[in-house]
Amino acid sequence: MTRYARWAVVGAVASALVAWSLIQVTIGTAADEDQELKANILKLADVMAQKDMDAAKKQAQTIAAKVDEVEPVMDLMKPRGDGGLGVGTAGKVTPDGIEKKLLAMGKTPLSAPQAKDQGEALARAGYEVAAIAEVAKNKCPVKKKEGQKDPKDWAQWCDDMRQAALDFSDAAKAKDAGRLKAATSKLNSTCSNCHSVFRD
User: Fold this and answer.
1) In angstroms, rounded to a whole number, what is the distance separating the alpha carbons of residues 38 and 72?
2) b/e per residue 124-148 (b: at least 16 CB within 10 A)
3) Threshold 0.85, pTM exceeds
4) For 192, which DSSP code?
5) ω before 95 within 30° of 0 (cis)?
6) Which of 173, 168, 170, 171 has its CA nearest to residue 187?
7) What digits encode the pLDDT tens for the residues 82-115?
8) How many domains does the chain have?
9) Each residue of 10-59: pLDDT tens digit?
């Protein structure tokens, strides 16, 4: 192997190592940001549980300022394996993932024993949804009206989602299957209304 060829190989290996290091730093940074967002949403959910809306609004604005887009916030409604918050203790409440659980409950409402058994976990999930909605309100995907996408509608749907989530939590805490069925329907409707316009 000529000296030039050896230097070319050394250069290629060095470049590969630098690229690999940059990728690892990027992945590590993204993971850290995801964990920080989760922690912040969980703290905001605690505020939602206290129903201190003034404090929640301020905290949500601070959280929103740290994320570039709304997707990472909404992704917290996915199952744990997909980076979401999950619902309750892993494996105890199924399906895992707030969105999946709400959709499942919309199709097959919980029985009275299930509402009693899952009530606390569902109440907590409702506060987390309320927190997600309040942060999302500050991250509209469009700055001004574009076709059907209107920031005013976004804000209203986020408000509707937050209130529906709080109502859902109240029903879950009461462990009332009938109230949970109605609250689930309302919450799913608020999500569907927004998704029909803003979800690509």
Assistant:
1) 10
2) bbbbbbbbbbbbbbbbbeeeeeeee
3) no
4) H
5) yes
6) 168
7) 999 999 998 899 999 999 999 999 999 999 999 9
8) 1
9) 555 545 444 444 444 444 455 777 899 999 999 999 999 999 999 999 99
| Domain housing 145 | 3-198
Nearest to 164 by CA among 194, 127, 115, 122: 127
Tokens of 12: 């290629």
Answer whether 126's CB lies under 8 Å from 169's CB: yes
Q: How far apart are CA 22 and CA 115, in angstroms?
A: 48
147-154: long-range contacts, CB 8 A cutoff, minimum separation 24 = 148/197, 149/197, 149/198, 153/194, 153/197, 154/194, 154/198
- CA distances 103 to 100, 110, 145, 164, 185, Å, are 5, 12, 29, 15, 9
Size of the chain, expressed as the number of residues it contains: 200
